[in-house]
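Q: I'm a student working through a structural biology exercise. My instructor gave each of us a protein and asked us to get a predicted structure, then write a short paragraph describing it. Mine is Formate dehydrogenase subunit gamma. I'm not confident about reading structure output yet, so if you can add a plain explanation after the tokens, that would really help. Here is the sequence I was given:
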Amino acid sequence: MTSEVVAAAPVPVPGRAQRVRELALARQDLRGPLIPILHAVQEELGYVAPADVAVLADVLNLSVAEVHGVVTFYKDFRRTPAGRTTVTICQAEACRSVGAVALAAHAQATTGCGFGETTADNRLTLEQTYCFGNCALGPAVQVGDKLHGRVTPTRLDALLGDAR
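A: Happy to help. First, here is the predicted structure for Formate dehydrogenase subunit gamma. I'll explain a few features afterward.
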């Protein structure tokens, strides 16, 4: 499915580099510190900006390529800001067997964006996961921090309406 995603180039935020450096310095002595640092940056600042990669590489004495490789390898790390609300649809086998594929297609058609994309108005980001552990109540959908089970296209429309 093709869709247009409006993803403005991240504008450097004054003080962001300093905060990223502080987060990294506070965790640099952990065993294997890069991933915990990336999680901390994303949790506090919302995403790992391209400029953050160079700061982290400097603090950890790694190459920019090494840090970039980790950020881009793991789907947990966002490289652009997410929309106001993130909608995540389970695509694991249990949910797929009870309608998650059709639900995902409906969500993509309704929002106009694919998985990993954000609507043009920055209100919704559509994501997929491969298990919420809510298999008995599939298809499972998480809207923001709230998990919903047995979600139908009609129910998804209502959830998306609330999120907008």
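A: Here are two points you could use in your paragraph. The radius of gyration is 18 Å. The chain has two domains: 16-73, 85-163. It's a good idea to check both against the output above yourself.
Q: Great, thank you!
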